[in-house]
Amino acid sequence: MKNILVTGGAGFIGSSLIEHLINKYNNLNITVLDNYFTGKENNHFISDNIEYVKGDTWDSKELLKNKKFDTVFHFGEYSRIVQSFKDVEYVMKTNLHGTTTILELCRQWGAKLIYSASSSKFGNDGKDENLSPYSWVKSKMVELIKNYNKWYNLQYEICYFFNVYGPKQITTGDYSTVIGIFEKQMVEGKPITVVSPGTQSRDFTDVRDVVKGVEKTVHMNMNREWMLRSGINYKLIDVAGMFSDNVKMIPERKGERFTSEEFYNDTEEVLGWKPEHTLETWIKNLKND
Fold first, then answer.
1. Which domains, ranges and CATH numbers included, belong to the chain?
2. What is the pTM for the complete model shown?
């Protein structure tokens, strides 16, 4: 791992990964490709070893035509469930067309792919992969990556993210995270809004733990799926109560997931990774700032 491409590297998780890699390794050359749909220039990590390229993944053959990479962290996909119903054309262009273009480049370069998959497919005994355009297309990209391994010997590791929160999370707009929304509402002294019925369960994982897990998968060479999760499920109404006693229920939304599945996985044992941060501590620190 020396010449690295990070798609979506100006976003929440991508920029956190870059910071982790730069702080841990010497002599890395990192190129970031981001269209700034949700990414921000404020998330740039200033270094002589990092180059930022503005553009879409589906144009990456032209944008990166003079470059070659040994490792690709592909985080540059559309990543919201509810909003995907109104953004369906963009979802398909970004995740189907864009990701296929990245896979073709990985094949051309002989690069290893680290892919950010979505835990949304696991809800309701796996039926939730058809719950929204986003969930469906993310599950299909996992299938495509596995087929690229069979067809072209693409080397990959697939990392599943579970409701990531932490520094740099999006707190405003349609693409903000639930913990980001709660944080902003608490800071502004507003009611914490919870989508009815409030009993929906979620597994929340700190971004600082997630990027450590992602980095570890680079060295595994196993072509498998990794569950980067805290392993603790919370009801949204209970999480809201951690922020404030002033909680307001709002109407149910199309595509809302109701359960975060409990299931065994051996990621911690095989990867040698374990979450070090808890949601309770994160919220407590926010309230004390």
1. 3-164+205-228 (3.40.50.720), 169-202+233-288 (3.90.25.10)
2. 0.93
